[in-house]
Amino acid sequence: MAADPIRGWHAYIAAPKREALDALLSDHVVFQSPAVHTPQEGKAVTMKYLTAATEVLGGPAFRYVNQWRGERSAVLEFECALEGGIQVNGVDIVEWDESGRITRFKVMIRPLKALNAVMSAMAAALARLG
């Protein structure tokens, strides 16, 4: 039986390491952002977005508050606070293949004020990552 990618994702969030993220993702993973119209395809670009998102949203205020699972999918509801006290609520929708590698990662964020703040912070983080 393949490793549980959601358990692996939680471990990555607790201690973000590039190697751990790389091991979780399929080479053909697709990332869907709440701020980018088109899906971002491939491991390299998905790693860049998820690394930036971990930098922007991660930290002591970040926590998953609920989870719903299917056979090879999960919805993870999260909450956190950004600088300035902006409260973020969102979901990560994750799908994986038979080997346990993540094939699709979709993020949705609310409210609009939070999305706007996350978009600005993500742009800066992505620029730093090159």
Descriptive notes:
A six-stranded mixed beta sheet has the order 2-1-6-5-4-3. A hairpin with a 3-residue loop joins β3 and β4. The protein starts with a helix and ends with a helix. The protein contains four helices and six strands. The chain has 130 residues and is α+β, with helices and mostly antiparallel strands.
Q: Main attributes?
A:
alpha+beta; single chain; 4 helices; 130 residues; 38% helix; 6-stranded mixed beta sheet; 6 strands
List the helices and strands and how they pair.
Elements (H helix, E strand, L loop, with lengths): L4 H10 L3 H7 E8 L7 E2 L1 H15 L5 E7 L3 E9 L5 E10 L5 E9 L1 H18 L1
Parallel strand pairs: 1-6
Antiparallel strand pairs: 1-2, 3-4, 4-5, 5-6
Helix pairs in contact: 3-4
What is the structural class? alpha+beta
Mean pLDDT comes to 94
**Tally of contiguous helical segments:** 4
The strand count comes to 6
Task: Give the strand line-up of the largest sheet.
Answer: 2-1-6-5-4-3
Radius of gyration: 14 Å
Tell me the span between the first and last alpha carbons: 37 Å
**Overall spatial form:** globular
- Into which percentage range does the β-strand content fall? 25-35%
Order of helices and strands: HHEEHEEEEH
